[in-house]
TrEMBL record, chains A, B:
Organism whose genome encodes this protein: Cecembia lonarensis (strain CCUG 58316 / KCTC 22772 / LW9)
Alphabetized SMART domains for the sequence: HTH_ARSR (SM00418)
Descriptive protein name: Bacterial regulatory protein, arsR family
Xref: Pfam families: HTH_5
Gene Ontology terms for molecular function: DNA binding; DNA-binding transcription factor activity
Amino acid sequence: MGVTKTDLFTDQQNELAKIAKVFAHPARIAILEYLIQANSCINGDLVQELGLAQATISQHLRELKEIGLIKGSIEGVSVNYCIDPIRWAEVQNLFQDLFSGFPKISGCC
Amino acid sequence: MGVTKTDLFTDQQNELAKIAKVFAHPARIAILEYLIQANSCINGDLVQELGLAQATISQHLRELKEIGLIKGSIEGVSVNYCIDPIRWAEVQNLFQDLFSGFPKISGCC
DNA sequence: TTATTACATCGCAATATTACGATAAATTGG
DNA sequence: CCAATTTATCGTAATATTGCGATGTAATAA
């Protein structure tokens, strides 16, 4: 039926899955990487950089914005996007918590 | 058109996105968390635990297996699944690399 | 005001994902 | 051998995602 049964899972599980979904597209990874290196935040010249249509980039930016990973501020006729350091650290910790839950020394497999 | 233009991105970006996609469903998060705490690996009594149909769980397990995050070994009539520690650490590092690329002290936003 | 620039949103077509019943395959117990 | 058990796979319906052209909106420039 194509619809995830979120009611079967905890809020944390749903939240982490939702965040992971935003990372689950190479264009959004590329946007984040670009924002990391161009610390001075940029706008839709990601269109030039990535080779996707303007509408498509805008859509990816919105998804990144919706989970709070980036912020946009109007700068004249254009919009400056940048990573939100607070949220970035939060998301990092969510993944970290999952990964560190598994003890490296484990003779299971 | 619903098809990701992977040729526009680097192998690393595509790889990380593909891995993130596996984390992008609460059932798969739940399976991983269950495997973490039930260090002794288990099989499809995840059906009982999660409340999804057997076929659905099997499908999720396959996706986790396809990126190497878990391994299954035949144990009589059933299959024991467990986390692959090597791959787990690899994936952890991939995310870690992305997250640590952004300096926490950054007066951008 | 009008034109230009930059971005967001709408609407659609192509494709992917999710969930599950039905069925197949493989193993154990008799 | 046959039945029972467990898991995998197939097929399909419902829904979600991806990409983009077209259009809307807002700000600046002339």
